[in-house]
Amino acid sequence: MRRTLGDRTYLLIQDKVLPERPDLLLFFHGSMQSGNVIRRFTAGTFDAACPLVAYPFGVHQHFNDARLVLPVKARELGVDDVAFTRDLVASLRQEFGVGRVFAAGFSNGGQMVMRLLFDTPGLLDGAAVFASALGAGSNHAPTNPDSAYKPTPVLFIHGTADPLAPYAGGSSQARGDMLGAVANAERFAQLNGAGPASTRCPYPDVTVTRWGGAHPVELWSVDGMGHVVPSGNQLDPRLGRNTSSFLAAEVVRGFFGERSDA
After folding, report:
1. Among 8, 47, 7, CA closest to 27
2. Phospholipase/carboxylesterase/thioesterase domain spans which residues (predicted)?
3. Which residues are 10's β-sheet partners?
4. Res. 172 pLDDT band, cuts 50 70 90
């Protein structure tokens, strides 16, 4: 289950019987977490999201994401998480014959997923981001320009009462200015060439805004939810409340489409 690649660590969860070209999900943890912690944080609900699920460990419990302002050790050390991710995908593809590659991330991990969309264009077949949004203005600082981005389906789930990544945007934990959840989703819809937005309310506390097309973008806005991933878990109350309306893992699996072994 726990593996190493060079000097880096990741967890790998796999189905007992794998299809010929199994889908791979990379799940990036949040600040001050690890692969083990994010599995507990999400109650293990993502373990069955794909035939192969990898939980990379950040360096000093962080990933070196695309924000200009990031006062953590991973940035100070110049950790190349983009190269590590490429190497991890290549290694698992060689070992298992991986087909589609997806990525999901929470908070700092969500920031890392968005960095991958700009700095490894075409690597991912889909992405899911929880409790995170792009840096605003100069705080959006991936290595590649936005013009390098390749359209990719993206799902966002964000609580309206998130105390650390405010739904409306602004400053987040002294890590620079951030876009609001709606502006962030609109930016990706623009990059994806997605169609006009439509809305629905599948649950009393959830509004889903969808920009359709070949590369859709969805924003699940969860009324009153805090800095969490919908997983049925009761977490530190300082993060805000969770929702019992749905499991993020099920939404992600539906958004990415049927598994290759379904």
Report:
1. 47
2. 96-173
3. 3, 56
4. low
What interhelical angle do 108-119 and 81-96 show, nearest 10? Answer: 80
SS3 call for 12? strand
Torsion from C-alpha of 201, 161, 188, 152, nearest 10 degrees: -70
Show the tokens assigned to 186: 């609109």
Judged on CB neighbours under 10 Å (0-12, 13-18, 19+), 14 is middle
What's the CA gap between 244 and 233, in Å, rounded? 9
Query: Residue 147 burial by CB count (10 A; 0-12/13-18/19+): exposed, middle or buried?
Result: exposed
CB neighbour list of residue 90: distance below 8 Å, 6 or more residues apart: none
Q: pLDDT by residue (tens digit) across 45-104? A: 999 999 999 999 999 999 999 999 999 999 999 999 999 999 999 999 999 999 999 999
What six digits make up the tokens of 149?
Answer: 């981005």
> Which pLDDT does position 233 carry in this prediction?
86
- What would the pLDDT profile of 129-140 be if each residue is shown by its tens digit? 999 999 999 999
DSSP category for residue 137: G
User: Which DSSP string do the residues of 170-202 spell out, in sequence order?
Assistant: EE-TTS-EE--HHHHHHHHHHHHT---EEEEEE
Domain spanning 2-256, CATH class? alpha beta
pLDDT of residue 1: 87
